[in-house]
Amino acid sequence: MSDLIRIAVDAMGGDNAPASIVEGAVMAVNESKEIMVYLTGDQEAVRKELDKYTYDADRLQIVHASEVITNEEHPAMAIHDKPDSSIAVGERMVRDGKADAFISGGSTGAVLVGGQLIVGRIRGVRRPALASIIPTDKGFSLLIDCGANVDAKPEQLLQYAQMGTIYLSNIMHIQNPEVRILNIGAEEEKGNALVQETFPLLKACSDINFKGSIEARDVPYGAADIIVCDAFAGNIVLKMYEGAASMLFKNIKAALLSTFRSKIGALLIKKSLKEKLKQFDITKYGGAPMLGLRGLVAKVHGNASSKEVKHAILQCIDYKKNDIQGKVAMAIRQEGSAD
Amino acid sequence: MSDLIRIAVDAMGGDNAPASIVEGAVMAVNESKEIMVYLTGDQEAVRKELDKYTYDADRLQIVHASEVITNEEHPAMAIHDKPDSSIAVGERMVRDGKADAFISGGSTGAVLVGGQLIVGRIRGVRRPALASIIPTDKGFSLLIDCGANVDAKPEQLLQYAQMGTIYLSNIMHIQNPEVRILNIGAEEEKGNALVQETFPLLKACSDINFKGSIEARDVPYGAADIIVCDAFAGNIVLKMYEGAASMLFKNIKAALLSTFRSKIGALLIKKSLKEKLKQFDITKYGGAPMLGLRGLVAKVHGNASSKEVKHAILQCIDYKKNDIQGKVAMAIRQEGSAD
Q1: DSSP assignment of A195-208
Q2: Which of A4, B151, B216, B309 has a 20 to 30 Å separation from B3 between CA atoms?
Q3: A323 contact partners, CB below 8 Å, separation of at least 6
Q4: For chain B, how are helix, strand and coil distributed in percent, rounded to 5?
Q5: DSSP category for residue B116
Q6: Alpha helices by DSSP H, chain B
Q7: pTM of model > 0.90
Q8: Pick from B105, B98, B133: which is nearest to B119 by CA?
Q9: Is B192 left (phi over 0), alpha (psi -120 to 50) or beta?
Q10: What is the gyration radius of the CA atoms in chain A, in angstroms?
Q11: Quick one: CA dihedral A143, A148, A154, A160, positive or negative?
């Protein structure tokens, strides 16, 4: 049993917790014999859900956590005030070497703050960053940073590019992923001060495949594997994408339901449309990793399905097997010594 | 004739120039007897287009400009190197008091640079800003700044809010327009350094209706009349909006054409969908104004239709009649003395 990959999972985080989380954990344990899952959370509530399933009890256990952090709480204060929260308990397991990874669908802010304060950075990493997987016309892109550092420095963005490259090539098996920097034009001289200072660093870095700038307009078309930016810009990309899509679909739906004729039309297009939109389902890619920590911390959506939870858990196998942490540490060290 | 509102229009700017521009100018002159339009551009090419129409020749004249600035040229260099370009000629007319406004569908960068260097700022305005009209679920919002200043200062964003308020209430006749600052969360303590420093300035300003932050997700839903941000963030909002919508429509179209059944459905929904999407047609709102200049400079889309050009020209009537320039100067002065 000593070779099992050990994953702590926040059983209390998200809209459908603990039900979907527990179901996802059971699915993962039943699918892979290589993992051991620890569900952190209220013993009684989690047990009640677990009792619904058949699974290898040696590889799926509850670690009691008496507190829960909500989305409404101030992340840093919550992490400080609730040391027995399901997030803090899970992240301490990673810190103490009792788990290789931690997955949560709870408060993004608290998971991030806990990641930095409890799990801790890999030596040499300036700032851990949240990498989101966003759907595109071609598949997906990794957008870094989406939530950790709003006023980022050029050296941080360079590290995002390096860490993202290691992550994508080892976990998603994309060879030589293309890195671009989010910008307001394709020309090298464009951009704000951050972009202009970061551009030459990315260009000079030998362990990434840097291809220049990407305009926001080309993000949905999948014009880069990895997009680096500060967390303020990353949040705008992410939220505009969500907002534009949801607003448009709302209006399209209203149009389809507006007349008898259009309602019939809607019935006829439904299947094709559904089929097409499946390509934008990113839940199969697992969680959004927080890059640069001493252990994998990944965030699943607040409304994550059991399937998404399962994928996020299974993702940890490659993370551990391919020694992402060691590879990041080495890349960062080399770049540092080259300065 | 001395009371006519005089508008210089770049006849050479945009994909459909001079044809659509000239047509739009003719439409405007025929619709309003209050205006006089000067078409700046190649005399011969413009004359050829003009000859196709019937119009009051006293109120629609050509001002010859021998050069054209393309989108590929470096804006500042082009403005410097091509003093007889249709943009520079039109902007000089505003500077010299020969025109009240200038409208162009040409290079946004060149129009902006020329606006600053040739037309010049209203005294007290720190930096002129490009305000884009973006379509929303509720109508439209004014997004400032979309292209002028990427590394903006808090005081600039405050002025954007003031100028946008004057513009919207006088030109678009929206009473007491709601101002919000683009942010990554609704809470006051969220945001990058720029947002955190700007927030209290907006809160303390008595001549705007400040309502706090807006997340990018809520932008497409029209959660603010005026959204202020630096031009880097504004560009991301604008381009993500465009990119997400165009990518989604591309895929929806592909889905509709994928089977015989869906093709029939597409025919049935076409009319309702088209009707619904009309609400997102922002060309009726005229051009994107560059706020803070001594005269109105407005940018229409590169692919502007004659209708958009017409609306942009007619928009200048209210701009002049309501003395936007004087109102901006007064608001800026008052705020300055209150410091």
Answers
A1: HHHHHHHHHH-TTS
A2: B309
A3: none
A4: 50, 20, 30
A5: I
A6: 19-31, 43-50, 75-81, 86-95, 108-114, 154-171, 193-204, 231-256, 260-277, 306-321, 324-338
A7: yes
A8: B98
A9: beta
A10: 21
A11: negative
Encode A209-222: b = buried (16+ Cβ within 10 Å), e = exposed: bbbbbbbbbbbbbb
* DSSP one-letter code for B335: H
Which residue in A240, A245, A272 is closest to B216 by CB distance?
A240
pLDDT for A27-66, tens place per residue? 999 999 999 999 999 999 999 999 999 999 999 999 999 9
Reported as a single tens digit per residue, the pLDDT across A95-141 is 999 999 999 999 999 999 999 999 999 999 999 999 999 999 999 99
For residues B208 and B179, the answer to whether their CB atoms sit within 8 Å is: yes
Rg (CA), chain B: 21
Instruction: Name the one residue in this structure whose structure tokens are 């021998």.
Output: B66
- Both tokens of B227, joined, read 């959204």
> With b meaning 16 or more CB within 10 Å and e meaning fewer, what string describes A31-44?
ebeebbbbbbbbee
Angstrom distance (rounded) from CA B228 to CA B131: 9
CA distance A278 to A93: 36
**B contact residues 216-245, partner A, Cβ 8 Å cutoff:** 216-221, 230-233, 235-245
3-state secondary structure of A41: strand
Which of B182, B248, B269 lies closest to A269 in CB terms?
B269
Taking CA A133 as the corner, what is the angle to CA A131 and CA A137, rounded to the nearest 5 degrees?
140
Query: Which residue is closest to A182 within chain B, CA to CA?
Result: B236
Distance, in angstroms, between A189 CA and closest chain B CA? Answer: 10
